[in-house]
Specification:
heterodimer, A: 388 residues, Butyryl-Coa Dehydrogenase, subunit A, domain 1, Butyryl-CoA Dehydrogenase, subunit A, domain 2, Butyryl-CoA Dehydrogenase, subunit A, domain 3, 3 domains, 4-stranded antiparallel β-sheet, 15% strand, B: 260 residues, alpha/beta, 9-stranded mixed β-sheet, 7 helices
């Protein structure tokens, strides 16, 4: 085992999240997957354990931790259920903009309840016609006196309908293009804010995904985050620091599948021997372990880079997310293969790991978009060096 | 409300082995945990505090490393931990143990309720809780599965029996021992874990308790363990899986041949 030199507090977070996963998540993961029920009971336990406040400053009731702390929690939760883990992380995604761009009133109003997990958050950017091309969003926010009036539809929003606090990205000045987009805090139960159908997903089924519909939804102008026109900058910066969380989710899913595969290979007897004695299986397990460990090293290193204060982390966090999610897809597919026919059955946990892994290659920017980010950074860096 | 919870650090039971030569538990390399029944006592103590205010003091008697059990209890929400640790306590049976613990309660003085787990998973005697209340001359209610009400200086509780349960009212202060039906122990919080790391644990020795020398430790223990052994495991049974009448005939033949 590689020693990642975690601090005492980080080991404590890991052990606590492991206990929550083993006692509260794993036992009901298959049931949540089947019913698609929102995991309120588990969310309550996570809240009582102070884990929603990991990255929130202590003066707002949080723990004052960093991205690596969140990654450790995500890795552990995801070993039990990727759906529960993303429910937790999506609230974090809706919290980061307030932490980083909220003014004092906004922080005082929202961060303490989010730190306690009394309310959970969500982030609304994606629209039916604006996925990878985020600049194609059509939701508008029109200023009228002391209010903004929101109109439009967001879709595929994690925690949609279950979260109480939403960060919504909307156009405030169409003529300015990407610089005419702003971020708003919108509370559930605001008149004109309703929810569409709950999506029936392939994996991460314990998490809820819904449409958010805004029809002349009137919000006070105090709910604007930062300044008008900063919506895209906020979005990009938030994704830079949230991507390692998704990478850690992928890592946890992969580790969970690997652990299950090793256990099964030792128990399953064919040709009179445990299948773990066959080199064909051994080599598969060895490759899986190597990929998982490489992903972990990358995720932790990236998280540390962000926590060290480096602001230019877009490419690094894209690399971590790309590699960890591709690893999760490969490792979970191989785990199903090692389980053979049993692996294809819902009675065993590995087919769920495989279904859950797939989304990590898609959301928080598809892996094709991640490659764009990485390549653009490479080319930009090379051009800069040439000028010198 | 001042609540006292007694806990014991025990070896994780599924792993315990006995040294065949010395007839003692092999403790090396075995993880220590809080006696599982005591987790319910801790939880109930914290719930009482959350409802009525006051504080929860958790005590244990044991070697210095038992301090970690107290820290775990503090991470869950107990306010203070006291460790009773002294070579003079070594070898205590349930009588000497309950006397020592009762002396610690006398030193604390002010308390409204004492909560213990129904028994420890290593000794399984279920005698220490009742022993403490006897030494203190306060009411005891064992096998409590629910605290219904605490008011007007008395407690109404439900006590498990083999047939059902009894509803009992007792004046405070009293001692209860709890069963696992009473609650679901919580998972610690990060803030609790951090507080427990820094918490000061008080250690009391025999002299601090003003305990009578011949009532503690080996000297104060009229019972002693002569031998511990693992009973031989029962041989595997035989299954006849033919038709019912054939199997019965076969069984009767075998019983006859063995003169049963």
């Amino acid at each position: 085992m590689i020693d990642y030199l975690l601090t005492e507090d980080q080991k404590m977070i890991r052990d606590l999240c492991r206990q929550i996963t083993e006692e509260k998540i794993t036992p009901i993961a298959a049931e949540l997957d089947k019913t698609g029920e929102f995991p309120w009971e588990i969310i309550k336990v996570i809240a009582q354990s102070d884990l929603f406040g990991l990255v929130i400053e202590e003066k707002y009731g949080g723990m004052g931790g960093g991205v690596l702390d969140v990654c450790i929690a995500m890795e552990e939760f995801s070993k039990g259920c990727g759906g529960v883990a993303i429910t937790y992380a999506a609230s974090g995604l809706g919290t980061y903009p307030i932490i980083l761009y909220g003014n004092e009133e906004q922080k005082n109003k929202y961060l303490p309840v989010l730190a306690k997990g009394e309310k959970i958050a969500a982030f609304g950017l994606t629209e039916p016609a604006a996925g990878s091309d985020a600049s194609a969003i059509q939701t508008t926010a029109k200023k009228e006196g002391n209010h903004y009036i929101l109109n439009g539809t967001k879709h595929f929003i994690t925690n949609g309908g279950d979260a109480q606090i939403y960060i919504i990205i909307a156009i405030t000045n169409k003529s300015k293009g990407a610089r005419g987009v702003s971020a708003f805090i919108v509370e559930k139960d605001t008149p004109g804010f309703t929810f569409g159908k709950k999506e029936d997903k392939m994996g991460i089924r314990a998490s809820s995904t819904r449409e958010l519909i805004f029809t002349d939804c009137k919000i006070p102008k105090e709910n604007l985050l930062a300044r008008e026109g900063q919506g895209f900058i906020i979005t990009m910066k938030i994704f830079d620091i949230s991507r390692p969380g998704v990478a850690a989710q992928a890592l946890g899913i992969a580790q969970g599948a690997l652990d299950a595969a090793v256990k099964y290979a030792r128990e399953r007897v064919q040709f009179g021997k445990p299948i773990s004695s066959f080199q064909g299986i051994q080599f598969m397990l060895a490759d899986m372990a190597t990929q998982v460990e490489a992903a972990r090293a990358l995720v932790y290193a990236t998280a540390r880079e962000i926590d060290s204060g480096n602001k230019n982390v877009g490419s690094d966090s894209a690399i971590a997310k790309l590699f960890a999610s591709d690893t999760a897809m490969k490792v979970t597919t191989d785990a199903v293969q090692i389980f053979g026919g049993y692996g294809y059955m819902k009675e065993y946990p590995v087919e769920k790991y495989m279904r859950d892994a797939k989304i990590t290659q898609i959301y928080e920017g598809t892996n094709q978009i991640q490659r764009n980010i990485i390549a653009q950074a490479l080319i930009k860096e090379a051009a800069k060096n040439k000028k010198k | 409300m001042n609540i006292i919870v007694f806990i014991k650090q025990v070896p994780e039971t599924t792993q315990v082995q006995i040294d065949p030569k010395t007839n003692t538990l092999i403790r090396e390399g075995v993880q220590s945990i809080i006696n599982p029944f005591d987790m319910y006592a801790i939880e109930e103590g914290i719930r009482l505090k959350e409802k009525f205010g006051g504080k929860v003091t958790v005590l244990t008697m044991g070697p210095p490393q038992a301090e970690s059990a107290l820290r775990e209890a503090i991470s869950l929400g107990c306010d203070e931990g006291i460790l009773l640790s002294d070579r003079a306590f070594a070898g205590s049976d349930t009588l000497a143990t309950s006397y020592t613990l009762a002396m610690a309660v006398k030193k604390i003085k002010e308390f409204d309720i004492i909560i213990c787990g129904k028994q420890a998973s290593d000794g399984d005697t279920a005698q220490v809780g009742p022993g403490i209340s006897t030494h203190l001359d306060i009411p005891q209610i064992t096998y409590v599965k629910k605290i219904e009400e605490v008011k007007d200086n008395s407690a109404i509780v439900e006590r498990m029996t083999e047939e059902g349960f009894e509803v009992i009212k007792a004046p405070l202060p009293c001692l209860i021992t709890v069963v696992k039906e009473i609650n679901e122990p919580r998972i610690p919080s990060l803030k609790g874990m951090m507080r427990s790391k820094k918490a000061a644990i008080t250690t009391w020795k025999a002299i601090d308790l003003q305990a009578e020398e011949d009532r503690i430790g080996l000297k104060g223990s009229p019972t002693q363990v002569v031998k511990i052994f693992t009973p031989p495991s029962r041989p595997k049974g035989q299954i006849f899986d033919g038709a019912a009448d054939e199997s019965v005939a076969k069984l009767v033949d075998i019983l006859k041949s063995q003169l049963i």
